[in-house]
Amino acid sequence: xxVQGIPEHSPYTKYWIFRKGNAYVDPKTKEFxxxxxxxxxxxELIKSGDSNTPxxxxxxxxxxxxxxxxxLMPRTSEIEIKDFEPKLPQRLIHGQLIxxxxxxxxxxxxxxxxxxxxxxxxxxxxxxLAIAQxxxxxxNPTPETNKAYIKLPNExxxxxxxxxxxxxxxxxxxxxxxxxxxLLDIVANPD
Length: 191
Fold this sequence. Notes:
This protein has no helices and 15 strands. The protein is mainly β.
């Protein structure tokens, strides 16, 4: 592939390939939380470019098709996997599932999810959170109460463990699913 914008004397020869993904938005406040970065693959510098000529790279790994406008980021170090222990959050957490990797609509055990809470909310790597299925609104069977619809209670649907924390969002692994889990279901401190 040919890449523009790589400094002529870059100290890096290996790069990650990323693509800008969907925006993460807090479902309640509508605050912009960030963008997903889709990991596409890896590449190595073959020939440096200059201000007039793009650099030449060899794709060494591709998980998806590499497209025009994908971005490169230097591989300054390998991702470090740190040891951590599962634990309860130190602060009160109340958030929602806002995305799931690979875009499925129903979420099950061992799937990676994105939640709308991060380090600014007190989340840490290893925190265990309960997942609650949001109660539906149903037609009131006793209309004489002057309520056309009633909201059913939220029901516990599983647990997740946070494994990556950013300022405004975190990634979690669903450890247990006792009923279907969906986007916008609630995550909170376990009882």
